Amino acid sequence: MSEVKVGTVVFDRDSDRPAMVHRIQGHTVTVIRPAGNTWTRPYRRLRPATPAEQDQLDALARFQRVRCKGLAHIS
Question: Is 2 within a domain?
Fold first, then answer.
């Protein structure tokens, strides 16, 4: 990966899952998942996400929106 930018979808080789770049601090990158889970990884442990991995993250984001919308109706 030549350059990581905030908002880029990457694949974390350690956790085996895609995430979006949330923050960059030197050689450490903080990534975030649709439910809000964040974690940090060294830059070298990430790679660009494939189109299928990007689709997976998009599907998780849609699921999370529906899930949160459903919880809003619970009183």
Answer: no
- Burial class (CB within 10 angstroms; exposed 0-12, middle 13-18, buried 19+) of 48: middle
Where is mean pLDDT largest: 38-42, 61-65, 70-74? 38-42
Q: What is the pLDDT of residues 25-54, one digit of tens each?
A: 999 999 999 989 999 999 999 999 999 999
Q: What domain count does the chain have?
A: 1
- Print the domain residue range for 37: 9-71
Q: What is the pTM of this model?
A: 0.82
